[in-house]
Amino acid sequence: MSNEKNRNVQRWLAVGLLAALLLILIAAVFVPAVSQWLELHEEKSQLAIKLRQYERILAGKDGVLKSIDSVKKAIQGQNYFNSQNTEALASAEVQEIIKKAIVDAGGQLSSTQALPVKSKDKFSLLTVSVRMTGNSEVLRSVLYRLETSTPLIIIDQLDIRPMRGVRNRRTRQIEQTNELNVNFQAVSFMRKKAE
Predict the structure, then answer these.
(1) Where are the domains positioned within the chain?
(2) Residues near 151 by beta carbon (within 8 Å), at least 6 away in sequence
(3) Do 98 and 105 form a contact (C-beta atoms < 8 A)?
(4) Fewer CB under 10 Å: which end of the chain, C or N?
(5) Peptide bond preceding 151: is omega within 30 degrees of 0, i.e. cis?
(6) Taking every pair of C-alpha atoms in the chain, what is the biggest distance, in angstroms?
(7) Helix 87-105 to helix 136-147 angle, to the nearest 10 degrees?
(8) Are 161 and 124 within 8 A, CB to CB?
(9) Read out DSSP for 159-193?
């Protein structure tokens, strides 16, 4: 009996070791393989979603290109860019627009100076340095007129300072004035001519 009992215990031990070995083998091989398969399946699903999104984007490409062309035509039709033949003529036109805006608003133009032209991509930036005097209403009117003009003019580096009052000869007191000294740069754009 004892031998048979020993054999039964050995059989159960062998079966237990075999089961443990199978569990270890499953844990070492099967679980990582299934885990890897699940990760790859998830990644595949995400890539399929991205692919469908890109396909939808590409399907709308022609519409977007047509929209870009229509926007370009609309911009060209609105005369935002200076249309003179040379940068010097364009700069002179900007100076004339500035002078007219200041005089029409009741201000006084002290000076304008064309600064060197800067190139940016397909455009030339025409910059004019301006000095003027006038009250706050004149300044508001000038800035509004310049920033709503065509060709497009952008105001940059605006410096506003009150003018010093004048001393009254009788009272020897300084009389305040509403006049302002204003310095700014006006920037306009011109398309570069094809070379």
Answers:
(1) 2-59, 87-191
(2) 79, 80, 81, 82, 83, 93, 94, 188, 189, 190
(3) no
(4) C
(5) yes
(6) 141
(7) 140
(8) no
(9) EEEEPPPEEPTTT-PEEP---EEEEEEEEEEEEPP
Integer Cα distance of 100 and 95 in angstroms: 9
Contact 186, 145 (CB under 8 A): no
Taking a C-beta distance cutoff of 8 angstroms, is the pair 120, 189 a contact? no
d(CA 122, CA 88): 17
CATH 3.30.70.60 fits 87-191, yes or no: yes
CA torsion through residues 130, 134, 135, 137, sign: negative
| CA–CA distance, 142 with 53 (Å, rounded to integer) | 50
pLDDT, tens digit (0-9, with 9 covering 90-100), for 49-92:
999 998 888 888 888 888 888 877 776 666 677 777 888 888 88
Q: 182 near 160, Cβ under 8 Å?
A: yes
- SS3 category, 37: helix
The per-residue pLDDT for range 108-123, each reduced to its tens digit, is 999 999 999 888 878 8
Are the C-beta atoms of 188 and 126 separated by less than 8 Å?
A: yes
Contact 98, 111 (CB under 8 A): no
